[in-house]
Design a protein that fits this description.
globular, binds 1,6-di-O-phosphono-alpha-D-fructofuranose, 7 helices, Fructose-1,6-Bisphosphatase, Chain A, domain 1, 5-stranded mixed beta sheet, D-Maltodextrin-Binding Protein, domain 2, 2 domains, alpha+beta, 17 strands, single chain
């Protein structure tokens, strides 16, 4: 007998409480899923959709924008406007947040997103993703830039979509992490991975080792041990993977354990890390912590950081609990020795 699968809509109706606050989150999640469906259509058509390649423009990070970066950004903005309760939108592609007015909604929200993460993969047909995060907005006054700069612990919804062999949407409202798979024929998401868990131990790490010469000693110590495997102090051999799309790398870790690192490095002293706190690190940290893993900068818990600007960069170490704790201890040992 075939068991009926739970749709995203059915999941939201049972998972979210029935108060107004939650009904806003309900419609935001559905709108995000619509943006994801339209981005999945574009990515799956690839060159046939005429969406590959770069534009002349650069984003606020000084990175050349891909056509799909801009199209995905528009898909998110248009979808979130339809939710009717989003008062502010901030994205990787726009220097300043966009503020909206809504009538008739008792609760307002702020949404932050990276519409297309891993852009360097687009033209070579390798997995990319979208990352998003939602906060409550003030209702007694217009929202401002300052209202976005809140610790990740205040996220009401965090999630990502991975455009891989199958498109998946992974979300958390602070009660576990749940994964949905897109059925491309019906354009609907079905719950395929309820209550996902990151295994506590692992033998896999993801890091861009071409940056090795810029790392701090605690990261060298950890990676050297992993590479030595059984012949070093770890009593097991490790495997390494790097897709160069945070979404794809973190998704793999969520599915089968491991640790993802884009650590602090000395390449550019004005940038303590490569990844963006607001729309990469914080949402992924919530997803991983809600699945039983840990997420830190190596020194501090990512979800407790208070951002100082929308596009702030941070070091990121996240994944299996035991490994993230170990890396934290190596940082503490190093800081103590230095002191
Ligand atoms: P974009 O946001 O420009 O697509 O960058 C993606 C990313 O920040 C993140 O997804 C990867 O983990 C990282 O870049 C890969 O960077 P390297 O090319 O330095 O390995």
């Amino acid at each position: 007998m075939q068991v009926e699968k739970t749709t995203l809509e059915q999941f939201l109706s049972t998972h979210l409480r029935k108060d107004l606050h939650q009904s806003g989150l309900h419609s935001i999640t559905l709108q995000i899923s619509k943006a994801v469906v339209s981005i999945a259509k574009m990515t799956s058509k690839g060159a046939l959709a005429g969406v590959l390649g770069s534009l002349e423009s650069q984003n606020v990070q000084g990175e050349t924008q891909k056509k799909l970066d801009v199209l995905a950004d528009e898909a998110f903005i248009n979808a979130l406007k339809q939710a009717g309760c989003v008062l502010g939108l901030a994205s990787e592609e726009n220097e300043q947040p966009l503020f909206l007015s809504t009538q008739g909604s008792d609760h307002g929200y702020l949404a932050v997103f990276d519409p297309l993460d891993g852009s360097s993969n687009i033209d070579v047909n390798v997995s990319v993703g979208s990352i998003f995060s939602v906060y409550a907005a003030p209702r007694e006054r217009p929202a401002s830039l300052q209202d976005f700069l809140r610790p990740g612990l205040e996220q009401l919804l965090a999630g990502y979509a991975v455009y891989g062999p199958a498109t998946m949407l992974v979300i958390s409202f602070g009660q576990g992490t749940h994964g949905f798979t897109l059925d491309p024929e019906s354009a609907r998401f079905f719950l395929t991975h309820p209550s996902m868990r990151v295994s506590e131990q692992s033998a896999e790490f993801a890091i861009n080792t071409s940056n090795e010469r810029f790392w701090e000693p605690p990261i060298h110590r950890y990676i050297d041990e992993c590479k030595k495997g059984k012949t070093g102090g770890r009593a097991k051999d490790f495997n390494m993977r790097w897709v160069a799309s945070m979404v794809a790398d973190v998704h793999r870790i969520l599915m089968r354990g491991g640790v993802f690192m884009y650590p602090r490095d000395t390449r550019d002293p004005s940038k303590p890390g490569r990844l963006r706190l607001m729309y990469e690190a914080k949402p992924m940290a919530m997803i991983i912590e809600q699945a039983g893993g840990l997420a830190s900068t190596g020194r501090e818990r990512l979800l407790e950081l208070v951002p100082n600007n929308i596009h702030q960069r941070v070091p990121v170490v996240l994944g299996s609990k035991d490994e993230v704790e170990r890396i934290g201890e190596y940082h503490a040992d190093y800081d103590q020795e230095k002191a």
